[in-house]
Design goal:
- The longest helix has 20 residues.
- The strands form three sheets. This protein has a five-stranded antiparallel beta sheet, with helices on one face.
- With about 290 residues, it is α+β, with helices and mostly antiparallel strands.
- A hairpin with a 2-residue loop joins strand 2 and strand 3.
Length: about 290
């Protein structure tokens, strides 16, 4: 599932090609996503302009005039791509390597835009969703209202972190992936952050030192900035709408590297894989305490 850097890359790709376009027509091939598409609601955006596209955590928000907002979650296999009048394809998704003939049947919704492009939402497993709400409903939306601060935001501070974990007895990796604590982090980046922070993923939050907390915050920001700069992580062939794959996976230090030698040049240990809260966790037993 795409995490904050990948969704941010998608947002930027969509902004470059769709912002300020008007929706001229919509074709719904299959509205049976995680939540069934409300055909009456989606048709209300015909004739409206996409004024801006933003990201909150792992969600995309398309803002239209008349205070209508389209909330999108890509799920496991959701993707957007563009077709222009010559059928040149530009893709933006966590899974970009599309077999045109085989995958066409998974084109769920087609938005015809005023810039002579079609914006297509494709979703094989249909775990993604598209919902519509009024602008004044955003703060109370069930998917958004309980989200913690963005990890790159100034609100994600030492004091916030320390106050949140006070009295809690959870492991640090599970805490980092708790969207009510900090929004947008997933399995990939939680593993990488803890490696650079030299903290074992099983360490309890009550045992964290102040210096541990400072390192987690510092490396969270550093790693996410780098991942965005490199276009995200292409685990399942992610790419931007320009067809560019992400490069951050080439810089993984622990994620997916079970049995491989630790990337710390002074360490001769090998990466270990365990399961925490049902998710694969990778760490170096020597470097991470």
């Amino acid at each position: 599932m795409p995490e904050l850097p990948e969704v941010e890359v998608v947002k930027r790709s969509l902004t470059n090609k769709a912002q300020n376009s008007i929706v001229k027509a919509i074709k719904i091939n299959d509205g049976r996503l995680r939540y069934k598409i409300d055909r009456n609601h989606i048709r209300k955006i015909i004739g409206l302009k996409i004024e801006k596209i933003t990201r909150r955590s792992k969600y995309l928000l398309f803002y239209f005039n008349r205070d209508i907002v389209m909330l999108v979650h890509l799920g496991m296999t959701g993707k957007f791509f563009f077709l222009n009048r010559t059928n040149t394809k530009y893709k933006t998704s966590f899974y970009y390597n599309i077999d045109e003939k085989k995958d066409k049947k998974h084109n769920r919704i087609i938005f015809n835009l005023s810039n002579n492009q079609k914006l297509i939402y494709n979703d094989v497993r249909k775990f993604g969703f598209i919902k519509f709400l009024n602008k004044n409903q955003i703060s109370e939306n069930l998917h958004l209202k309980k989200l913690g601060p963005e990890p790159l935001h100034k609100k994600f501070t030492f004091n916030y972190f320390k106050k949140y974990i006070l009295g809690k007895n959870r492991v640090i990796k599970e805490t980092l992936m708790d969207q009510t604590f900090v929004s947008g982090l997933g399995n990939i980046y939680a593993n990488e952050i803890l490696f650079f922070s030299k903290i074992r993923p099983t360490k309890k939050t009550k045992d964290l030192l102040d210096d541990d907390i400072k390192k987690v915050i510092r490396f969270t920001k550093k790693i996410l900035f780098k991942a965005i700069m490199l276009g995200g992580s292409s685990i399942k062939d992610f790419s931007s709408s320009n067809g560019k794959t992400g490069l951050f996976q080439q810089h993984f230090s622990v994620y997916g590297r079970k049995g491989e030698k630790c990337t710390n040049k002074t360490c001769n240990n090998h990466i270990v894989k365990i399961v925490i809260a049902g998710r694969a966790s990778y760490y170096c037993p020597k470097c991470q305490k």
